[in-house]
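Example record used in the benchmark description.
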Amino acid sequence: MKHFLTYLTGLIFGLGISMSGMANPAKVLNFFDFAGTWDPSLVFVMGGAVTVSFFGYRALFKRYETPAFEPRFIVPTSRVIDAKLVGGSLVFGVGWGIAGFCPGGALPALGALDANVWVFFVALVAGIFAAKFMMKLTAAKAARRAA
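Model output (structure tokens):
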């Protein structure tokens, strides 16, 4: 049942991204083109997602002590704004602005078999592995310094 619900959630997300046009990089890039063909629809899609999430999480945590298929809810608790958070946000935003895809919008678009989407996806995966490698290097360096 857990895997079915995971699949169903992903399917609903993918349909929402596709129906809203957010899997189309031109639509996303037009959002950033303030001086030209600005398209504000991304604000409404994001606003709708944030609103649903805001009220959904509040209702979920009031009603349930634990999730249905896990021993506890896993919610970020850190409120620290550090170089890792800011750097990651900058890389994400610049990549989104250049490519017109965020990871959530690119995954449903993979089915279109567009080469640009696949290039983005390969770069995304390479970036994930590069970030993990860099984090291991910096952790090892910090451990050597502490010793």
